[in-house]
Amino acid sequence: xxxxxxxxxxxxxxxxxxxxxxxxxxxxxxxxxxxxxxxxxxxxxxxxxxxxxxxxxxxxxxxxxxxxxxxxxxxxxxxxxxxxxxxxxxxxxxxxxxxxxxxxxxxxxxxxxxxxxxxxxxxxxxxxxxxxxxxxxxx
Length: 139
Fold this sequence. Notes:
By secondary structure, the chain is of the alpha+beta class. Helix content is about 40%, strand content about 20%. The chain contains four helices and four strands, in the order H-H-E-E-H-H-E-E. The chain has helices spanning about 1-25, 30-45, 70-80, 90-100, and strands at about 50-55, 60-70, 105, 120-130. The protein has a four-stranded antiparallel β-sheet. A hairpin with a 4-residue loop joins strand 1 and strand 2 (about 60-70). The longest helix is centred in the first third of the chain and has 23 residues, at about 1-25. The chain is globular and about 40 Å long.
């Protein structure tokens, strides 16, 4: 079920990214700053209130996303499924990147949820602007 859920979230993200860009006439993502702006539009429009997160810029192509509160995890925990929950948020993020045809590396993408294990939820995203989106699917 987790594997299918992540695949669906990734496919949904690809579709969402293409449609939001088309509908709002947003420009192509060519820099990390472009991506960070588009990412906030996506979170605000497509996943309002789902995450409380901070983004730290590491360099001109890399950022670190720290999720302090995740309502998806909270719902899984409320249902007693936190120990079995595998993050679909990273899969949706990967779908957004793929929908924009951005090359990227996103990690770590684990099978489980770090918040469920009492660990910080932190992803590092490195964009590869000259490459097509050929990264492996997010976990």
